[in-house]
Amino acid sequence: MMNRRVVITGMGWITPLGLDIEGVWKRLLAGESGIAPTTIFDARTFPTQFAAEVKGFDLKRFLGPHYEPHKLCSRNAGFALAAAEMAWRDAGLNGAPTHNPEMVGVYLGGGEGPIDFDNFVAAAIAGWDPEKRELDSIRWAQVAAERLTAVKEFEQDPNCAAGHIACRFNAQGPNFNTLTACAASTQALGEAAFLIRRGDADVMISGGAHSMIHPLGVTGFNRLTALSTRNDTCITASRPFDRTRDGFVLGEGAGILILEEFESASRRGARILAEIIGYGSTADAFRVTDMHEDGRGAIAAMRGALADARVRPDEIDYISAHGTSTEENDKVETVAIKSVFGDHARKVPISSVKSMFGHLIAGAGAVELITCLLAIRDGLIPPTINYREPDPNCDLDYVPNQSRKATVRTCLSNSFGFGGQNDTLIVRAL
Amino acid sequence: MNTATGATPVLPARRVVITGLGPITPIGIGASAFWSALLEKRSGIRRVRAFDPSQFQSQIGGEIDGLSVGDYVPKSYRKAAKIMARDIVLAVAAAHQAVTDAKLQTKCLLERGEVQGGPNLDITRFGANIGAGLICADLPELAEGLHSASAGGQFSFARWGTEGMNNLTPLWLLKFLPNMLACHVTIVHDAEGPSNTITCGEASSHLAIGEAFRTITRGAADVCICGGAESKANPMALLRQGLGRRLSRRNDTPEQACRPFAADRDGTVVSEGGGLVILEALEHAQKRGVRIYAELVGFGAGHDAYTPAQPSVPHPAGRGCAVAMRKALKDAGIAPSQVDLVASFAAGLVEHDRSEAAAIRGVLGDRAAAVPVMNVKAGIGNNGAGSGAIDFIAAVLAVHYGTIPPAFNSTPMDPACGLKVIADGPVDARVGYAVSTAYALGGGQNAALVLKRFKE
Known about the structure:
heterodimer, A: 430 residues, alpha/beta, Peroxisomal Thiolase, Chain A, domain 1, 2 domains, ten-stranded mixed beta sheet, two-stranded antiparallel ribbon, 14 helices, 34% helix, B: 456 residues, 14-stranded mixed beta sheet, 29% helix, globular
């Protein structure tokens, strides 16, 4: 069986802190927050009235002459396309085709598109029979058929972003979308790397995109009491590992990376950002509502990735934490890191850029892996901002508030999905 | 992936076999009921009963009666049924069928007292890869809440935030997250190995099975439960599929409505169901001495890269499907001339069936008119993410028993398709290699799997 090396040759992102790699990286190093009162819909009576929104996004600006066939795509697919365009160019692939299109694939952790809210709600209200307390499917269908459209409905399907990207870049190879909640794009990158290792593809456009900043997304997370409700001090609401953390902050956006087989990337003289050397995937198999207290699945994912990479825990220079700013995640992730890293747990810098980006859900792992690539490139580790009060349950080095100079060769990035699916990636400087 | 010295080692490839089948379909639950129904040309398509479909263009579908989650989970887990959308129930039922069929002693079967002793597999090397759709957000519950936040038929955000949303159960979101199929299944059976959720429409099951195949081959798991499930037998899905002009309007003759490859086909029929299969490393299966249905020897995936427009149009020559098939054959190390059976996905859509037929003809070349093609949609319809798993299970059984079930609604055949679709039968045929295809009706994803008759 083939076992080829996989390198990253391009990166692109659309984030709450901006729409380009270098500008956003500077803001992350400066510890800026992308969080502000919600503008996408009227959230003024919601328990949570703020989010980390992408501002000033115009897909046309990114796609230029290629915009037309994609103009009706959903918000998250637009983010994915723009980030892919950025990554493709960053990898130097925007000239004449360099690869057999059947060996170019796409693997996204792409979220579902936001529902057509006004029209969906109009049909739901018209269809509800308050006397019988049931849905009158005849009245519902009358209004729904009048108001809902095929384009808006099908663009919500989670495989659409991956389809748009394949069409844009003529990628006729393997095309996957995973939706393992908050772990999705880390999982996508890990599995995409294996497609290249195995010889199923030479190039993979991989990462994730999501936007759950819509009325039903916020409703769902508010009902779960998973979101921070610090409406008065929202800029500092995302405070991973801090004792006063009270939930995560929804973000939105996309991160896309170009993965390439090492030999062919070298042959074409591509700039290599890092090599993907390890991937681990596990299930907690515990509860859909809670992580396993001892971090069982998280530990197994990290150990799996280390074993795959054949590196020892003390060779890891930086951990990009899942670090959601929920009571449970940050405590359990800390327990899990201690259990995997032993003495090295206290020495290795750990940070969560969710303190600045908010939580991009399916897109989170991909933007976080990009921060690892930048940390390797520049020897700078982004901080965990809003860290004020130490939590006795979270007693490691979270790179509080200030970015830090460090020699970073090997990074480990964690993503843990709601429901118990866990993924870990390890990247290393070449 | 690389050693410390940067060398590239060549790993031994492990053989992967299929040891358990768990189909949940409108014509039968479990492998034997499903297989008999296919051979007897039974149809599960009827006028929709879950709700009054009078206002919809297509009013028929494949529904599954009497499915109760309590029959498939330990007693202690029954309360979780409250947070399971129909899609999740289907997956949980399929998992129970599959592990039982494979004689795996999982947590669920042990706790239910269906098997005695302890687990007969390493749970940390027991993976899951389950395809899922965009789960319908429980329309009645949501409609009641939205209605309570409206005045004079107008929705008010102010009332939604303060009162309306509180009508939803706190765990409401968990009912329809697509990864909950895999999460519940892994919890119920204690599968702690690699876990994934593929959401690529009708291609989901094949992609999930293909990826699970790779997971075992590379040694990251010994056993994987994989496939997919979805329900389109609800108002939202029926409306959406209708908006996409995907559905048959033969409301008066539901059993004849789904007509893959027939000249007079006019769309597919919504359905609910799915299937999970147990893939297992050969040596692991042999050590347990369990029955082996067939060997999985090839996987390939491809994309049309044709048009992103929705509702999506397939590539006229079936480009993505052909890429997937050719890659899968290459992966299996066989030539197109060695294919004895094609298990087609065709769901009765005018353009998609033609596109798939073109792909099959393109790959098989001169032999296209001679190689038997099977199809099981006529009595089942299309449920979305679980459809491919049902097709795959039918293909596994065809290889195992050497029998091709009839595609009973496919005549008069569309001459443009140009395939040897087995419309009458069942027909006995020794199948050395079979290819099973699937593709998303929208989105452009395609996948193919190659099965081999098992020989030690």
